[in-house]
Amino acid sequence: MSNEKYDYAEKILVKLRDNAKEQTKTVGEIIGVTNHPEAVQGCGSCSVRGMARITENGQTWIGYCCRGKSIEELPYSGGVTCGKCKRQQQGKRHGQHNNAWGICDNCIFGSGSGEEIIEKSEVDKQLKTVRAAKSKLKKSKQTAAEKAIPYINAGLAESFALAIARGTDDGEIMDLWESDWWKQYKDDDMLIVAVLEGRLTEDKGKYLNSIRSDHERLALTCVEDPEMIDWSEAILNSGFNKVPEAVNDALDGGQPHIIARIRKMKVNTELLPPALDKPVLLKKPPPHMQEEPQEEE
Questions:
Q1: Are 62 and 34 in contact, with CB atoms under 8 Å apart?
Q2: What are the tens digits of pLDDT across the range 141-187?
Q3: CA–CA distance from 22 to each of 27, 92, 284 (Å)?
Q4: Structure pTM?
Q5: Which residue of 136, 139, 231, 261 is surrounded by the most CB atoms within 10 Å?
Q6: Does any domain span residue 239?
Q7: Overall number of domains in the chain
Q8: Which domain holds residue 192?
Q9: Which helix or strand (DSSP H or E) is residue 173 part of?
């Protein structure tokens, strides 16, 4: 997950926490025990036998051992048989077995409406997890920057040094650095980024650069989906290399052999690849390839 997504998750959780409810009453205060100091039945919460008090509805015995506990001291969350309303719902309980005695969320917060209860302590746990992951990500980025320093000091461009520091094969990065073909681009060009991130080898990057001037859409399609490279090589080697418009027709989902006949192209039918299952469009086309919105008449 990116730092931006962690920031967004943290923002949502903080907002949830501000609106969450908090319960400070004890078990006895929530279910309403009456003065019955001589009861000997086992405690309805933890099953310990001893002195207890009966609930206001006369059916559940809550021992001295448990009636003073806070809700946070009931260790299990999930299905409970509520000691107050007697319904089986989601809540907190002492026993590990599902639907054991406990107090449902609605009774804990005095709702009774059946609405979903967001408990502040649960939000705090999630918030803690997100912040820990965010801190770990930040630390890893700092570590990568520190690892890149010796290579930058030695003369390597920062983006190349960071790629090595983040674990991309250093052989591929250095092959790219020592070649000339990439120098016509900025290092944030999508083709260069794909090699720096290890999604393309330097050889594949060099190949896509060689076809990019005549078949830019095809080349960038392969950058976004390297599995398209074999299809690209097949259709260009079959005779489509001299007709960029025909390649685009095939990317739009047309049958290559039909396109060739319509355009009266000489092709090697044995090398023609199969038609694509559906039109292939660039997910992130560069600005000059983006269609301008048409003005409404």
A1: no
A2: 668 888 899 999 999 999 999 999 988 999 999 999 999 999 999 98
A3: 14, 14, 46
A4: 0.53
A5: 231
A6: yes
A7: 2
A8: 146-286
A9: helix 170-178
